[in-house]
Request: fold
Amino acid sequence: MNITTIEQARERIMPYIKRTKLEYSQSLSQYLETNVFVKLELFQKTGSFKIRGAFNKLLSLSAEEFKRGVVAVSGGNHAQAVAYASSVLDIDAVILMPESTPRNYVDATLGYGAKVELQPTIAAAFAEIKHYEAEGRIFVHPFDDPLVMAGQGTVGMEILEDLPETTDIFVSIGGGGLAGGVATAVKAVKPEVRIWGVETVGADSMTQAIVAGHPVELPAITSIAKTLGAPSVSPQTLALAQEYLENVTVVSDEDAVQALQFILERMKVLTEPAASCTLAAASHLKNQFNQDNNLVLILCGGNLSLDDLCRFIR
Reply:
């Protein structure tokens, strides 16, 4: 993956996705005492950035591969993205999801026409993939695929086009595909931009991998930010993080929910904890910024049920 493959991805997926807005937030700027903008990927079709990578992968398949169908693993947003893209392109899709997946994610994935198979854990879901590949299905990995990452990297291209003065970007990390794609795109165009990765306690596979020097499989995902719940990063996404990220800040679930409330009350936008954690991290790093900085928070997803919102706040 490089800037050329990301540019190719943009041309490929353009007819199928929204170009989401990048907006200045006075409330967040006052809160962080710098200039803050938000990239509203939660208003993307299916409610997250994941549709970009899914379409880029599926549109790159051959006609013969289309006929074989696809299989994917996801705790939520990637599931909906692959299901929706498959329905648009008339591809048969099976999505493996952990039993802990919030019901609204399962229902939405079914609603887009995919078959859903629940597995005890996300690790068990990944383990089951080999059976479907043996049947001939194409595996659409949620992050460890250059085509998927290139699709996600188009977010970074749009940010720099809309705000050439960008100095800092905060991006959530699940498996690292979004962070890797965005960083690759941004650093190719404007190397001085700082990319800050964000995880939550209990879904910090990238932080643990950086400390260990290799991918580490988490025994369980305990964070409420289920859409950050990759059991491990990959060697590829780890290498991109090591090369491009300033650091990875790990915030608590409580901080992510407080940031979620602040964004909802001040901006009237309902994010997932996996997205609001970017504000929590920027708050922790507030001393890194001044009035000359232009921060972009990628609000990567908004598929939060009302039940979960009430539970988080309680």
